Amino acid sequence: MIDKILADQVVATVNELYNLSLSASDLSLSKTRKEFEGDYTLVVFPFVKAARKSPEQCATEIGQALVARTPFVESFNVIKGFLNIVVSSTEWLNFFGQKFNASAFGYAETKSDETIVVEYSSPNTNKPLHLGHVRNNLLGFSVSEILKANGKNVVMVNLVNDRGIHICKSMLAWVKFGEGETPESSGLKGDHLVGKYYVAFDKHYKAEIVGLVESGMKKEDAEKNAPLILEAQEMLRKWEQGDDATIQLWKMMNSWVYKGFDETYQRMGVSFDKIYHESETYLLGKDLVQKGLDAGVLFRKEDGSVWCDLTGDGLDEKLLLRADGTSVYMTQDLGTAMLRFDEYKPNKMVYVVGNEQDYHFNVLRLVLKKLGASWAEGIYHLSYGMVELPQGKMKSREGTVVDADDLIDGMIQTAREMTEQLGKLDDFGSEEAKRLHYNIAMGALKYFILKVDPKKTMMFNPAESIDFNGNTGPFIQYTHARICSVMRKATERGIKVSSELTYGMEMLGEKEKSLVKLLHDFPAVVQEAGNNLSPALVANYIFDLAKEYNQFYHDHHIMREENEAIRQFRLDLSFFTATVIRNGMKLLGIEVPEKM
RNA sequence: GGUCGCGUAGCUCAGCUGGAUAGAGCAGCAGCCUUCUAAGCUGCGGGUCAUUGGUUCGAAUCCAAUCGCGAUCACCA
Is the C-beta of residue A554 closer than 7 Å to nucleic acid chain B? Predict the structure, then answer.
């Protein structure tokens, strides 16, 4: 790409002129700001000392040398210590001619031999998915797509948390209060049905605590001794012992949940190469802990519980096995990590998990290293921020949790209303219209969430998320549909996108040039998004591109242009833009319609 | 209390490992459809980049302190 070549040229020039040995990372070469003339700008302040010249002199010297040695550097101008470099229009058009027809533009051309396992979603099977999971799923899927676009060999995995005390809570509540209710009998989606009993458990449990406190027990003791919690704990022990009836119940209720999850995953458009179940991996963790004990890396306390001492690393002691021998979250995560490493030998393991677990992953990495797993260095916690609502954080107690299925339904509903209001679907069949509503709804939702830097806490404002104007998914989808409309017009007149470039640089007007330059940036954006595991970079780039195209579209005729060569160039340019919009949105998991 | 993270326009967010006069969208106001999709385009107003100090040619960006917000430090996951 042009910027890379230019950077090499600049490095060579500066090194020769001032007898230095800099590398490309030592200099600041960036895109020239809009208000100045030029394409790339070099800040020369860093080497004025070595050069022993004024910034202006320095910049001028470098500029002259660049023009002399680099064919595509047409001219330059100097403002203070800034050297603005002008790349020839011919060079931009060369780039355009080479790439405008490339359907996979932006994606790596060569496959890397690096393997990356991306874990995301990781739901518990005791309640349905909510808004927080939505961010997780969208991030995990998009990051995986971005890594694939960078040529990585990506394995998308889901670790389903299908066992543990929380699962027993909903099971127990169903036994006690369920009266045999099933998804079939009630018409409730399986995950929602099970979630209902998880809530029921909590309600009855709380009531028991209140009762015990009133009869004189301390709150702490009441929480530990309420009959329901004791029964749930008993159920967990039975489960770990493989008690038949318990296992049967567990299998039945989990199967309801899986059916419900599958539906939601499908609607969100996410998928997995491999699904791990904690019930199948937690014993591996126990083995590991045993080995750690044997090796003397871990220690056992008097009550029989097993711990890892991390005080030497500035952390505390961490529990790995309870006194009764049952395992905790960390135990199974150790086992799963080991299993996963053995299966795929990945160079990196990315965990898409909320930032409230930062501590957990520090510990996980440390304990694995203590257990002798040097590959634990490759564990990367993609720690994303919480999703907040205008009223504050989501709280199940206050009933402010935004359910994933409800959210999607609401988005589709709004998309339908908007589309009908605008009267755009007149020539759509009902299936086609349904498909469109779905695509717009998911485009809006996905874009709204992915455009924010993953690390940051984000605000989910329902009213804004269904706004389809401005920096939104539908705005970008609309731009794509518009281009497709132009393409149809062209086809009607028997005009096709060129198979190769046949026109010259006189085509390149101001707006066209800035569009071409923006298109040129796309592969670098995909790379950076891959390095930073940040879909937001892709999202913001596509928005800029769509905005730029809409201005071009507004200012210029395409099919109405009389000059044949110019018309052809603008058509090709539109086609290229559509490709980049499509390729970029695909990385976010968003479909772009041809009509809307 | 210890540790970690975050404070940019009324609101939601960009601003890459320091670079030119801090940018978008929404909301508000004013314009643009006999012309390829107006879910669009154009213009206007709106900022002590939490505060204070430091590092240097240059700081929203790096460092320190202070204030405010959040997370975490469970035999929860």
Answer: yes
Summarised one tens digit per residue, pLDDT across range A259-290 is 999 999 999 999 999 999 999 888 888 889 99
Residues 6+ apart with CB under 8 A from A478: A596
- Alpha-carbon span A62 to A51, nearest angstrom: 11
C-alpha A58: how far from chain center: 43
State the ipTM, two decimals: 0.96
> Cβ of A176 < 7 Å from strand B?
no
Q: Which of A589, A591, A567 shows the shortest CA–CA distance to A148?
A: A589
User: For strand B, is any atom closer than 7 Å to the CB of A106?
Assistant: no
3 state SS of A55: helix
Which pLDDT belongs to residue A178? Answer: 94
Residues 431-460 of A with CB under 7 A from strand B: 436, 440, 451-453, 455-459
- Proximity of residue A53 CB to strand B below 7 A: no
Task: Please check whether residue A112 is in contact with residue A153, taking contact to mean a CB–CB distance below 8 angstroms.
Answer: yes
Q: Which CATH number fits domain A2-87: 3.30.450.40, 3.30.1360.70, 3.30.470.20, 3.30.565.10?
A: 3.30.1360.70
Task: Report which of residues 203-262 in chain A place their beta carbon less than 7 angstroms from any atom of strand B.
Answer: none
- Report residue A338 as tokens: 């080991």
Nucleotides of B under 7 A from a protein CB: 4-6, 11-17, 19-21, 24-27, 35-42, 57-58, 70-77
Largest interatomic CA distance in chain A? 92
Q: How many CB atoms within 10 Å of residue A176?
A: 14
Name the nucleotide with the smallest C1'–CA separation from A163: B77
Between CA A307 and CA A127 the distance in angstroms is 30
Answer whether residue A1 shows pLDDT above 90: no
Chain A residues 577-596, Cβ below 7 A from strand B: 594-596
Under CATH, what is the fold of the domain A408-587?
Isoleucyl-tRNA Synthetase; Domain 1 (1.10.730)
pLDDT, tens digit (0-9, with 9 covering 90-100), for A347-378: 999 999 999 999 999 999 999 999 999 999 99
Three-state SS for A78? strand
Give the residue from A93, A142, A34 showing the smallest Cα distance to A520. Answer: A93
Evaluate if the CB of A36 falls below 7 Å from strand B: yes
Residues 487-506 of A with CB under 7 A from strand B: 489
Burial of residue A225, with CB atoms counted within 10 A of its CB: 0-12 exposed, 13-18 middle, 19 or more buried: middle
Whole-number Å distance between alpha carbons of A265 and A121: 10
d(CA A323, CA A23): 57
Q: How buried is A261 (Cβ within 10 angstroms: 0-12 exposed, 13-18 middle, 19+ buried)?
A: buried
* Gap between the Cα atoms of A198 and A166, Å rounded: 8
CA distance A347 to A352: 16
Q: Does the CB of A299 sit below 7 A from strand B?
A: no
What pLDDT is stored for residue A24 in this prediction?
Answer: 83
Q: Residue ranges of the domains in chain A?
A: 2-87, 163-270, 408-587
Tokens of A212: 């015990």
